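G., before I forget:
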Amino acid sequence: MDQFILQILNGLDKGSAYALIALGLTLIFGTLGVVNFAHGALFMLGAFCTVTLSRFLSFEVDTGEVMKTAWGTENPVTEPWIYGTLGEVTGQTVIDWAVPLSILFSIPVMIGIGVLMERGLIKHFYKRPHADQILVTFGLAIVLQEIIKYYFGANQIATPAPAAFVGSFDFGSLIGFDANSIIYPYWRIIYFCFSLVLIAAVFAFLQFTTFGMVVRAGMSDRETVGLLGINIDRRFTIMFGIAAAVAGLAGVMYTPIVSPNYHMGMDFLVISFVVVVVGGMGSLGGAVLAGFILGTLESFASMQFVLERLPGINQIVIYLAAIVILLTRPRGLLGRKGVMED
Amino acid sequence: MFGLNTKDTRLLLIVALLVVLAPFLLNPFPEGSALAQFNAGYPDLMQRFVIFGVFAIGFNILFGLTGYLSFGHAAFLGAGSYAGVWMLKLLTINVIPAIIISTIVAGMFALLIGFISLRRSGIYFSILTLAFAQMAFALAASVLTPITGGETGLQTSLNDPRILDAASEGGNIPAPSIFGLQMRDSFELSVGEWLFTFNTGYYLSGIIMVLAFYVAIRIFRSPFGLMLKAIKSNQQRMHYTGVNTRPYMLACFVISGMYAGLAGGLMVAMDPLAGAERMQWTASGEVVLMTILGGTGTLIGPVLGAGLIKYFENIFSKINDNLLHQWFAFLPDGMEEFMVTIIHPFIGKGWHLTLGLLFMGVVIFLPGGLVEGGQRIARLFSRKKPSGKDGATTRTEPAE
């Protein structure tokens, strides 16, 4: 039983990442009708926003003092520049909290990147076949990841969570199991809660604001909304920016779980597409649901008990699920009838 | 000739001639000169040209004729490679059985995947093939290690049974050969400053590529090919006229997969090593790029695309900063530094960046690929007034 709960918990944080990326993908697909293969790259860019910010905060400057080493050579003493402006204690805290802080930093950056991408490239591909959209965004993904590789190198860059959240939470003793039977890292709980908040925010935005209402109207009938004198293209562009920001935030918060490297986007992209298809193309709720289901499924498949009987199942269970779903229920779990069914 | 019309015969002959004369054509610069690094006439690279040519021709039969974009074609190449190495290990070091078996194995693999994937079309088909390829990749790299060699890859070794061969003497791992003629054997011809290399492996792959090209032409011109083109332009209409398109699609998919397996078999025939990374989806993306770059749906396009990509991959990865400094030495110092700094990210390890940009550029500006580009240029220079019947306007658009 405790194993069971542990696996559900394990599935939740991976599932949150899948759900967030798939949500962004579905937003883009539902509004603009574009299949965006560069979405994984946006996730990766978000993660590298964190790396940039933490590098920027801990950028070392000369203090003017000189320290003598044991051998008598003189080394200039350096310290992060932020100590000079905020004092050492506050500065240290700010550096420590780089990951949460980059949420603030990454939102405008990612929205900017998203809008730029849509206006500069995707806009010209609305009328082209899906194959062309896949190909051009695939090319863009390669370019983005190579640019990141050029500036940040090919190695993983560790970006730890704030010291307050390092460590694990003894979930088992809380609900009546033996102590230490179900241990779960704090940061993963935060990631899960964060993703729930983010998903709720996106849904609330679409459901309860006028802007969201217009966007939803545009999703179901773009032409009529345009005829009503509403500049739907501009709203869709903004939605693209928001989708990019969602993917970026998923990346920002994921950095303490997996150290960012330049190809992390590609690793997530394939699975996210599978998630979108399983959830139902164009269905936001389906994307979120499928994200969590597949994440949990994956973590169950990696249990020792299952692996002994079906070796390697953890690597392929998501794809297997996708194949079964696509063949038995073509429109996905929550897909609407008639949306991209063939 | 060979059941082809004059135009196709000419095309086939040109390709055959290019393949035969490639060691000369690709070595235009004398040995030891500053431009010698642009030579492509060495066996390893020439082999890759024709092998990826076969791969791209096969991909084009599927994507070019039917418009079904498979993102998992590398899986067939990988399956073919593994089958080929196993033949070299178990049966004989002669490459003929290896190549035949790898084609057949890839074909069966394609039959299985195609049977399931072809139930859906459009983006779903792409994702299904992608899912299958990723599955194959994940399994090959982990659980199937006894068959695939896992992450280290599969290769021939000294204690392989090789039941048809005599025991190898000398304690060396035998190199793949065809009836005693080793694949890596080369005949070198030195003419003045030039050095031309004629490699057995290259010519074997070259002959197979010309054959594959011939079969592709026949498929393109056959009633079967016409049926596939009809599926591309409007599958629904085909259904309404009472045609069951499924068998045609499946046959096409299997043929395409067999081409990929053939390419995989040739790859291991040249170098008896197969690794899981050959199945990764970026490898599938590469063959898509080759086809698009050359010109989707054209006969010669994929071969051109494959050659160009492999050539640039090789050349761009070789260029380094020192070389750039040499090239721009004629500029004033500041300018030289500036040019080198600008070009630096695109060369050497940055080759993939160039590749991505190329990919985007082709899809955005030249959807018809090099062949369309060539036609446009030819039209610019031809005196004929552009009539309404030129390539760009006769492309069939699917009627919604």
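Chain A is about 70% helix and 5% strand. Residues 2-61+75-328 of chain A form one domain.

More on Monday.
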